[in-house]
Amino acid sequence: MNLSVAEENYIKSIYKLEEGQESVTTTGLAYELDTKPASVTDMAKKLRDKKLIDYEKYQGISLTADGKKAALHIIRRHRLWECFLVDKLSFSWEEVHEIAEELEHIRSEKLINRLSDFLGNPTIDPHGDPIPDAQGRLGKQRTQISLDQARTKRLEVTAVSDKSNALLEFLTAKGIRLGTHLEVIERYEFDNSIEIKIRNQPAFTISEQVSKNIMVRPV
Amino acid sequence: MNLSVAEENYIKSIYKLEEGQESVTTTGLAYELDTKPASVTDMAKKLRDKKLIDYEKYQGISLTADGKKAALHIIRRHRLWECFLVDKLSFSWEEVHEIAEELEHIRSEKLINRLSDFLGNPTIDPHGDPIPDAQGRLGKQRTQISLDQARTKRLEVTAVSDKSNALLEFLTAKGIRLGTHLEVIERYEFDNSIEIKIRNQPAFTISEQVSKNIMVRPV
DNA sequence: GAAATTATTTAGATTTGTCTAACTTTTATT
DNA sequence: AATAAAAGTTAGACAAATCTAAATAATTTC
Ligand SMILES: [Mn+2]
Ligand SMILES: [Mn+2]
Ligand SMILES: [Mn+2]
Ligand SMILES: [Mn+2]
Questions:
Q1: Strand C closer than 7 Å to the CB of B44?
Q2: pTM check: above 0.90
Q3: Which of A25, A55, A125, A208 could join A79 in a cystine, given CB atoms 3.0 to 4.6 angstroms apart?
Q4: Res A1: pLDDT
Q5: Chain A residues near residue B108 by CB distance under 8 angstroms
Q6: Where's the HTH dtxR-type domain (chains A, B) (predicted)?
């Protein structure tokens, strides 16, 4: 199956929406891809013809087994390139998503497997997301929850859900990276903001919007 | 100036043909790009509108200064990616052209300059071709001539003109690489074939077609 | 220098991916 | 249940890149 760049981007976005439990709607996918609902309907028909999605009009979209497999291969490429950019070319984690968005469409099995070897076959990308293997399999992920739901005090940052520049730059500024250990000092019920402390640095407060997008595990 | 993949491929091919002294004709460019003359005429109008080429109907095509600059930037990207594939991912020189043909279109100044640094700012690619700098300037090339025209006996291979799989695999099989030192034993006038010797290995004969595509310098 | 051949351009079609505007279906509200 | 609002689809258009077939220009051959 040889997919166009546009088709690959759709498949990847559908996977992302499905992953977030949301049922995939025409409008939601249009928003995700920064396009119009009419365009989504058109593409949905095409992807259905290629048996990559199940789609009946007015009934929403879901990936078939083939579609899911395709998605995982694109995600593998995306995340491996992100690793390359960060580990080898010293890009920061907020810069890589955009470039990987293009690199992920370079089609060569050999290239991507060599790249993986060159990087030491990493299993998570610079944002803490797991990298599928050459067969498109995801290793079982470590249990992680979002910081706003964590109920223990001492936590380690394992991933970031939102990859926007805005959030990633904010986290960098605050000294929050993958692997950062933090301690919850206080939770304020009023606005669900959280006061946290990193090592010996002075404590500071982060909003619910931020804490929802930081994934952590107890430590 | 934001160019499409198709436009970039045209610009690069025009540069290549101009470089080879040939005047750039519609049919010649169509052949080079594996497309049809009618398509070339269409694209020629578009590139003229963008002021990248001079073109008047029936009068052939030539790059403007802007077009030449654009070409050199694409060539820089192509050749740097080739270096990456060979030096870092251990691809062989006959495998890299095709993949670089896609990678060259990834648009990010920062990416390509970081890549260049990562590779140690190489000045020649795996086929012996010079790599333009970030400003699109080519360093002065070492004087080289094709093996069929060389008049001295002891020579060093500096580049290969033809990048086809067929030739590159042949050269690899014969032990001819960039930097290989060879000695001309005999030139046969009948078919312009040449008998050569590499180090202590037994001499062998290569055809004019091959020797025309091997660039050398006296040593 | 006229005829034949070759090169180039144009006209009209096609595919892919997108859009707007109009229409239809579904869902929410009263 | 009727109506209003939101969500989704269709119809028709457009731009990019390509093609085939037909027309035209340039070049070569005799
Ligand atoms: Mn992409
Ligand atoms: Mn990522
Ligand atoms: Mn290319
Ligand atoms: Mn090369």
A1: yes
A2: yes
A3: A125
A4: 80
A5: 99, 102
A6: 1-64
